[in-house]
Amino acid sequence: MNFAIKTEIRDPRKGTFAFPRQKTMYGGKRIAKGDTIFLFASENEGGSGLVASGVVASAKAIPRRPGIARQTPCVSITVRRTALARRRLGRSELRPFSDWDDGRPETELNFKFYRQATNKIVGISEETAAFLRGFFSRG
Question: According to DSSP H, which parts of 29-136 are helical?
Answer without folding.
Answer: 91-94, 105-109, 126-133
